[in-house]
Specification:
InterPro entries: YcxB-like_C (IPR025588). With 156 residues, the protein is an alpha+beta fold. It has five helices and seven strands, in the order E-H-H-H-H-E-E-E-E-E-E-H. The protein folds into two domains: 85 residues, PH-domain like, CATH 2.30.29; 51 residues, no CATH class. 42% of the residues lie in helices and 27% in strands.
Length: 156
């Protein structure tokens, strides 16, 4: 009789971890498409300047366009800043990979992703993107050993 597989490790949710999560999960769009909303707000604001409405409303829409453009331009930096300001930042996380699924436990989170709830596992250069019924999660290879990486690859 074989024993069920179980792997457990701990890691810290530091800036390097969040940076890797973002880099491995977000694919940048080099076209102007992400800026369309910013351009729309700006054009509406400019059109309202020449209309018979309050200039405050017009400048509000121009300001929204500028903020949206900055959001697109500095998306990674803003995302990293929000993650580092969260209460989970710089805390220890325990990751458990076993026959049932993937469990993450910390002071603030106790989550479990069952293998039956996983739709897709994509191996990236530095880890795994796991798509499940509640979203997409990322697991870094830095916190896994070769046996665990092989176990997750069998689930692909």
């Amino acid at each position: 009789m074989t024993t069920p597989y179980c792997y457990s490790t701990t890691y810290i949710l530091d800036k390097a971890h969040f940076d890797e999560c973002y880099t491995q999960s977000v694919k940048p769009d080099p076209t102007l498409k992400p800026y369309y909303k910013a351009m729309g707000f700006g054009l509406i604001g400019i059109a309202l300047i020449f209309a018979d409405v309050s200039l405050y409303l017009a400048y509000f829409f121009v300001g929204l366009g500028v903020i949206e453009a900055l959001n697109v331009k500095y998306n990674k930096a803003w995302w990293l800043m929000r993650q580092m300001m969260s209460k989970a930042a710089n805390n220890e996380v325990t990751l458990i990979v076993d026959e049932q699924g993937i469990h993450t436990k910390s002071q603030y989170v106790n989550a479990q992703i069952l293998w039956t709830d996983i739709y897709r596992i994509v191996q990236t250069d530095k880890g795994f993107l796991i798509t499940h019924k509640t979203g997409t999660s990322y697991i870094s290879n830095r916190s896994l050993d070769d046996a665990c990486i092989g176990f997750i690859q069998t689930k692909i």
